[in-house]
Write a structure and sequence with these properties.
2 copies of one chain form a homodimer. Helix content of chain A is 63%, strand content 0%. Chain A is an all-alpha fold and 191 residues long. Chain A has 2 domains: 7-57, Arc Repressor Mutant, subunit A (Orthogonal Bundle); 71-188, Tetracycline Repressor, domain 2 (Orthogonal Bundle), CATH 1.10.357. In chain A, α4 (59-73) runs parallel beside α7 (118-134) and α5 (87-104) runs parallel beside α8 (139-162). At the A-B interface, α6, α7, α8 and α9 of A face α6, α7, α8 and α9 of B. Chain A binds a DNA duplex (19 and 19 nucleotides) through α3.
Chain lengths: 191, 191
DNA sequence: ACCTGAACACCGTTCAAGT
DNA sequence: ACCTGAACACCGTTCAAGT
């Protein structure tokens, strides 16, 4: 009789940093950041919590840094080809994409804002600068634009997630429209 | 012999929400958010941790909401008198003041960003709108400007606190200048 | 190399009790 | 009314031990 693939510990897919981060992200997205616990994460991975430390020696700190890297660091595609004159358009769609990604993992936003983890955003700033460089925007103007844009996107997402209480009773805020309006302000001012 | 004011529990200044929030803010500013603990807060107030619950029945949640209210809600003065034509100037100095206050309590920034506590920012948005109303800016343009500005200020402060890693080796970022530059972008676009 | 079990110090919070 | 003491369930993390 052929051995059924057994259900026990021996032949599970072995733990890996990717699998850990993924499971953590799922907990945060589904139940909120405060429910992300080493023990619960262990459960989700069908492993004792302590096993995680073998892959993330710096423990929960490293886990949280990993989450930030996962959602905030990816360049969100510099919209490749179009490279050139319409840098405003490129930045606009970059901003929309980036916002979408931040909102998809709203639970980690506080970490993005908080963690002293420069590398995560460095990539992002670099890819923004790249777009501006190809648009022949002068160096120091580019610095200001990149920072303003990134600050705006992150800040606006924060406002969206927490709500400003404007929607008292009847009024409903159309966040998509509002984001685009603000984006226009920022990009129009840029030159 | 006259009784010295005794050192024991009986005649300490009684606990109050203000005293509690103040002590908490001091801990956060001095040691970081993660060190803010009900037990440590109790120590700082020379009281058992459990006494705090008598004044903040909702416990730590309520404490954190209180911190957000304290640093993010105050209107930061709508610069009173000048009321009128130079609303751009008014917004500019409002933004500078607000940034200063956020940075003075950088430890609570993650809470400002995170906490589902609309009331805290509602006041702020209202005072911004007031400035714009006096400047005769049309209603829906005002909505966009207020949001964009607030989002930018919060987002930029977040970037400042965490660092973007741009300052690799030599380059030093002049955050004050950069904030003002972005502010100009936002306000120039506004109309 | 990879994971487990037991243990430690420390959380937030409840509840009955003191004054 | 205001505070304390003891207790409970739950944290992150260490460390020796298993395979």
């Amino acid at each position: 009789m052929v051995r059924q693939p057994s259900i026990n510990a021996q032949n599970r897919a072995p733990l890996s940093i990717e699998r850990i981060i993924e499971a953590a992200l799922q907990i945060v997205d589904g139940q909120g950041l405060s429910r992300l616990t080493m023990r619960r994460l262990g459960d989700a991975l069908e492993v004792e919590a302590m096993a995680i430390y073998h892959h993330l020696p710096r423990g929960k700190e490293q886990l949280l840094d990993g989450l930030v890297a996962h959602v905030a660091a990816a360049p969100a595609a510099p919209t490749g080809a179009a490279g050139g004159s319409d840098w405003r358009g490129a930045l606009r769609s970059w901003a929309r994409d980036y916002r979408t990604r931040l909102l998809a993992h709203a639970g980690v936003l506080p970490l993005v804002v908080t963690r002293r983890n420069p590398t995560a955003l460095t990539e992002t700033v670099v890819s923004l600068r790249e777009v501006l460089r190809r648009g022949a925007v002068p160096e120091d103007a580019a610095a200001a634009v990149a920072h303003t844009l990134l600050g705006y996107v992150i800040g606006h997402c924060a406002l969206e997630v927490r709500g400003t209480g404007e929607d008292g009773a009847d009024r409903v805020v159309d966040w998509d429209a509002r984001f685009d309006a603000g984006l226009s302000l920022v990009l129009t001012g840029a030159a």
